[in-house]
Amino acid sequence: MTKRTTAGIGKSRSKGSILLLVVGLMFLPSSGGAKSEPNGVESADGLIKYLYNDTRHVLTSPLRWKQNDILLVTTLSIGTGELMLLDKDLQKAAQRNRTIDTDRVSRWTSRYTRRITNFTIGGLYLSGLVLKNHKLKETALLCMESVILSEGITSGIKYAVGRARPFADKGAFHFDPLRFPPVSYSLSFPSGHATNAFALSSVIAEQYHSWMVRLISYGFAVLVSLGRVNNNVHFVSDVFWGGVVGTSVGKCLVKFHKKEDGMRECEIVSIREGDGIRWGILIWL
What we know:
disordered N terminus, disordered C terminus, 0% strand, 285 residues, mainly alpha
């Protein structure tokens, strides 16, 4: 009876500690002090236009890649291919070094990754409403978009590739591409959990240039990724490419909005000289 009680208290303390960490991540960016600004998404029409423009920008971004972008994508693709060659050895090493502690952490991250993501997005948006902070609300919307778009891209790749998971014990190069419905042990590449975590973390890290925010954000994403390898449900290359997808989409969205904000400021300044600031804001709503 005592053992059960002690175990229950231990679990409660563990959950409480991680909850405090998530709450800290949620409110830490609020110290940025951004003032409330019109953002064009207060109405349903504005929100739909906001989401449509962002989705279109992300999905068409490969058409605007420059030489450096192509070089980076090529390098990451080659790196992923090289990891695939090492996947089997890395999988064996990870399973040899599994412990009770790594299993405990990995089970928790695998179970609660999406809940933490939803909790963080909701917390950021509610904080923005309460504090009347535009940047917090914008960050929440960007996080939501990043997660949805990233997971959509990842799901498409999963079905197209059909890679077998490590626990199926079919090796690192067993594929059932474009199979519907997919085999139960397939859909390993890339990792959805890693994509989710990095899609969230990259937006927060790009919005708030604080080493503490970046440490917590990316630390969480790395922990989730390592947990998937520890649980033998993904190869290292799976979580690596999931991180690439999530980070790329998150950074793309933030960069797009910073550029748009700059264009809006210039347009408002030019209109102010003529018809006044109010008309400038209304145009961009």
